[in-house]
Amino acid sequence: MSIVFFILAALTVAGALAAVLLKNTVHCALALTVAFAGLALLFLKLDAQFAGFAQILVYIGAVAILVVFAILLTRGSETPKDGVYSRGAIAGLVIAAGVFAVLGWAVLQSVGGLPHESGPAPAVTVLQIGQALMGRYVLPLEIVALLLTAALIGAVIVAMHEKEEAK
Amino acid sequence: MSPLAGYLLVAALLFSVGLAGALTRRNAILVLIGIELMLNAANLNLIAFWRYGPHPEALTGMMFAIFSIAVAAAEAAVGLGLVISIHRHAKTTDLDAMNRMKG
């Protein structure tokens, strides 16, 4: 438990809190980007370089931009007059607090210490990841490729303008 | 507290924040943001267990996280496409106002 970990954890959690609490939707998207960046730094701290840079590329580079586009296209940056929280907000808060209590209790109650925990960082190179993706995990990789293609086409069709039903 | 427990607690906190956002906000895009935060918390758990688990050279947790990132990207694209489509029909992204399935 180093000081770097605490700084990164505080940055990530603060970004996440700002993303769900701020009133202006555009500010929420920017805070979400901060949370994603903090998560990518946490991945790098865990010696998972590939996952960290994939996180930066996919989440900061694509998902955050997509969220900003969606907010601007739907004019969601205008704060509604009757508040930003839904009718069941209190129940939602209670549920979230309960989930955190259960998860935190489970983590703190568990007998600590996996055997590898104090050992050196695992020496995993991108070469090994690529060979695993092309070898043992080639079928899931192809399925993800198919899923991404289907999701791309589906998203375009869903968001496409329907001319005949316009009026 | 062991390092693994620290990461697991951060992931639990992130998951709860995302869940609170998904359950309390009325803008559909903010609900999607909460879902993304929950997915990311799960990814942090996977990477932490990969790093501190017994066989990191088997790359199992890392592969889980990479595939999860890819699936989350597809989910975000389709979800935001749906929000834009609904906004075009109903002229709102307020989830409390979307109480009909008929367009």
Descriptive notes:
The complex is a heterodimer of chains A (167) and B (103). Chain A has 167 residues and is mainly α. Chain A is 70% helix and 0% strand. Chain A folds into two domains: 79 residues, Four Helix Bundle (Hemerythrin (Met), subunit A) (Up-down Bundle), CATH 1.20.120; 43 residues. The longest helix of chain A is centred in the middle third of the chain and has 25 residues. Chain B has a single domain, classed as Helix Hairpins (Orthogonal Bundle). The radius of gyration of chain B is 17 Å and the shape is elongated.
Rg from alpha-carbon coordinates of chain B? 17 Å
How many strands, which pairing sense, and closed or not: the largest β-sheet of chain A?
Answer: none
Overall morphology of chain B: elongated
Based on secondary structure, the structural category of chain B is mainly alpha
> CATH class of the largest domain in chain A, anyone?
Mainly Alpha
Low-confidence runs of at least 5 consecutive residues of chain B: none
Number of strands of chain B: 0
Instruction: Tell me the greatest interface.
Output: A-B, 84 and 73 residues
Instruction: Say what the CATH topology of chain B is.
Output: Helix Hairpins
What's the SSE pattern of chain B? HHH
Mean pLDDT of chain B: 88
Please identify, by name, the CATH architecture of chain B.
Orthogonal Bundle
Low-confidence stretches of chain A: none
What is the count of DSSP helices of chain B, taking H or I runs of 4+ residues?
Answer: 3
